[in-house]
Amino acid sequence: MTGWNTLKRTGFAALITAAAVSPGLAANAGHGKELALQWCSTCHLVSNDQDTVSGASLPSFFDIARDPGFSEDGLKTFLADPHPKMPNMTLSNGEIADIARYISSLAE
Ligand code: HEC
Question: How far is the CA of 55 from the centre of ligand 1 (A)?
């Protein structure tokens, strides 16, 4: 567990930094990360600087981002619809777009 976390920590930190400084993005991946840590991290592993996750069997956001079927638009649709097994989340369209952009930034 520690080894894997260390690997992710070093590998993805650079990636997130690169995404954060990319110019001209309407959605804000940095804000999306904050929202993900706030709203999603109780169940999903959403970030390499998150230490614990309760629903370890759920797909992490890294898994979701690398799924060949993943798209930001698909995720926006998914989050706009109430997700039965998720707590009642009231996210605005802008917040959803930020989260989708953040997850998408984890894919490379
Ligand atoms: C209370 C726990 C919980 C929280 C909080 C939660 N999720 Fe989930 N999420 C789940 C469960 C459980 C599933 C699996 C649902 C299923 O398989 O039917 C899931 C599935 C998903 C999937 C589909 C993954 C796949 O590959 O099928 C996505 C995308 C997702 N969640 C995104 C999010 C996002 C974004 C947030 C925060 C805004 C979030 N989740 C917060 C429990 C949660």
Answer: 10
Q: How confident is the model at residue 2 (pLDDT cuts 50, 70, 90)?
A: low
- What distance in angstroms lies between residue 23's CA and the mean position of ligand 1's atoms? 29
d(CA 10, CA 24): 26
- Amino acid code (one letter) for 33: K
Question: Is this model's pTM higher than 0.70 or not?
Answer: yes
Tell the residue number behind the tokens 């110019």, with chain if given: 23
| Residue span of the structural domain in which 19 resides | 2-105
CATH number of the domain bearing residue 62: 1.10.760
Q: How many structural domains are present in the chain?
A: 1
Expressed in angstroms and rounded, the spacing between residue 71 Cα and the centre of ligand 1 is 15
